[in-house]
Amino acid sequence: MKVLIVGGGNEPSGKLLEDYAKKVDKIIGVDRGCSYLLKNNIYPHYIVGDFDSINRDDIKKLEIDSIKKFKYNCEKDSTDSDIAMEIALKMEFAEIYMMAMTGSRLDHSFANLGLLSKANSAGAKAYIINETNKIYLLEESSKIKKDNSYRYISFLAYCDKVENFNIKNAKYDLENYTLYLGDNRTVSNEFLEEDIEVEFTKGKILVIFSKD
What we know:
InterPro entries: Thi_PPkinase, Thiamin_PyroPKinase_B1-bd, TPK, TPK_B1-bd_sf, TPK_catalytic, TPK_catalytic_sf. One of its GO terms (biological process) is thiamine metabolic process. It comes from Clostridium lentum. This is Thiamine diphosphokinase. By secondary structure, the protein is of the alpha/beta class. It is built from 5 helices and 14 strands. The longest helix is centred in the middle third of the chain and has 16 residues, at 106-121. It is elongated and about 55 Å long.
């Protein structure tokens, strides 16, 4: 089962929303994200938030029995996106796609990166998607499939250090490297004709597909 969570960050294009809406089984709208969906005639199955960033007309459109609502006060201990992730995990979705999770509020953008780790810990696979990037978290060695939608691929430590890090079959290979938090040596790599293999013995890696 797959779910799409649409938050209140930078608005995705209609095409991006429509493409992913077709891939998933359920959709969760998070506050302003509900308006992004409705703008493209996409109705979520669940809506989450305090709804302080959505206009009244859109709220009225969402007041139908087929949409389940999770309403919370503005002052709470979790962000709306975090609550949406908790709901998705309780419903045992195996793949979670998140959009409008990045934007001008860098605190929210960085906090949303933490949701990737929360999903992994629960046995799910989560992705943050925007117009130019796809981000996910690796906690074990893996083969990474080429995605022709993106030109670049970067690897960033999401811990103090990643030990014995190897990159194979990429434009820039790497052997037995210790990748520390903040190290930029593994930024802007590229695929060749084959899938890329990454190996490491300890740590967590953010994988970022990017295009200009």
